[in-house]
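Following up on my earlier message about phosphoenolpyruvate. Here are the inputs again, as you asked, copied directly from the submission form:
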Amino acid sequence: MTDRRPMIAGNWKMNLSLLEAASLVKSIGEGIQDQGVDVLVAPPFTALGVVKGLIEDTGILLCAQNMHWESYGAYTGEISPAMLSEVGCSHVILGHSERRSLFKETDEMIDLKANAAVESGLIPIICIGETLEEREAGETFEVLKNQLAGSLHHFMNQKRLPLSTILAYEPVWAIGTGRTATPEQAQEVHQFLRESLTESFDANTAQGIRILYGGSVKPDNIKDLISKKDIDGALVGGASLKADSFVQIIRLGE
Ligand code: PEP
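Thanks, got it. Here's what our run produced:
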């Protein structure tokens, strides 16, 4: 890795009551010192305010799991970028594979969201990843290249991507399945993504952008994953719901 600061991000998905969310974030805050790692949590929308109130002196960053691209209006059930900023979010996850597969989000929608996030000062964590069928058909790189081109269309047209942007490579077959990509498989893809960023933007952008790996990350596999040159941290689902395992991942398995 160059001087990209590692990040460990916890995606809580649609889990935890307010009390449980408060208790989890307090325990995480107590369990970490300055590990030289950015720590981020993505609670459900309804817990963002409570969690924000508990992370003030911990350095933990607050992230939303999704948002709409419009600023306001008749979009029942949606949340705007400004609303997320107002509640204290600095980051937003976009295009998680569950959003893509269960809620039919397309690359075009993710492109609109990524642009709106940056316009309103939020840092997008843009997720891409291939399915098992696509991997087995030898289509991994093609699928990822298309997802990248579609989700970053606006930025590619401008030939400029903010260096704070974060990508998350999450092979769909590894999410919540207990099946992790090997560090070598993940590194191969991360390297490919960095090369694609060099082609679409420039070497400086490609080297500056953080690329997280996601898919069944646990305390016992984080160290090997993060030892790879192009893996800058992890987006963690299941193992982020327990303070013990999440803190151990933040300590990079030590
Ligand atoms: C995720 O949902 O982004 C994820 C990686 O989940 P898990 O760690 O449970 O595989």
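One observation from looking it over: The pocket of phosphoenolpyruvate is lined by residues 11, 170, 175-176, 214-217, 235-239 (CB under 6 Å). Hope that helps, and feel free to reply on this thread.
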